[in-house]
Design brief:
This protein is mainly α and 110 residues long. The protein is built from six helices and two strands. It has one domain: 5'-nuclease (Rossmann fold).
C-alpha cells in the first residue's frame, strides 16, 4: 500500500535513518543479503540521503527544548530525524506516528 502511494515521488531519508537501517542490517542473520536488498530499494526509488547540517542542528535544539519543557522528550536520533524533515519541509513516514506527533508542526504521513 505504501509503495503505491510513494511510487514516482521523490524519497529522502536522513543520514540518521541510514545509520539505523545499517545497524539493523549488521544485526540480521544475513547482513549481506539485507544490505543488497536495501541497496536495491535505494536504487529503485532513487533515494536521496540528507546529511545533518547546521540548520538541522538548530531545529534539533528547538525541538528538544520544546519537548523537554512539555516533559515529553524523544531520543536524540528521533529528534534529528524530525529536525531533518522539518528543516527540509518534508513529510515524515513512520510506523510510530504517536511518538512523533509530539513534535510541533511536523508533517506526518497518515
Amino acid at each position: 500500500f505504501l509503495f503505491e502511494k510513494i511510487k514516482n515521488k521523490p524519497i529522502n531519508i536522513s543520514v540518521v535513518t541510514l545509520i539505523e537501517i545499517e545497524y539493523g542490517i549488521t544485526k540480521s542473520s544475513n547482513p549481506e543479503k539485507r544490505r543488497k536488498e536495501f541497496q536495491a530499494f535505494v536504487d529503485y526509488f532513487s533515494i536521496k540521503i540528507i546529511p545533518i547540517d547546521s540548520k538541522i542542528g538548530i531545529e534539533f535544539i528547538k525541538i528538544k527544548n520544546d519537548l523537554e519543557k512539555k516533559k515529553a522528550p524523544l531520543a536524540d536520533f528521533d529528534l534529528l530525524i524530525a529536525a531533518t524533515a522539518k528543516t527540509n519541509n518534508l513529510m515524515l513516514v513512520t510506523k510510530n506516528q504517536k511518538h512523533f506527533k509530539r513534535v510541533k508542526d511536523l508533517m506526518i504521513f497518515e
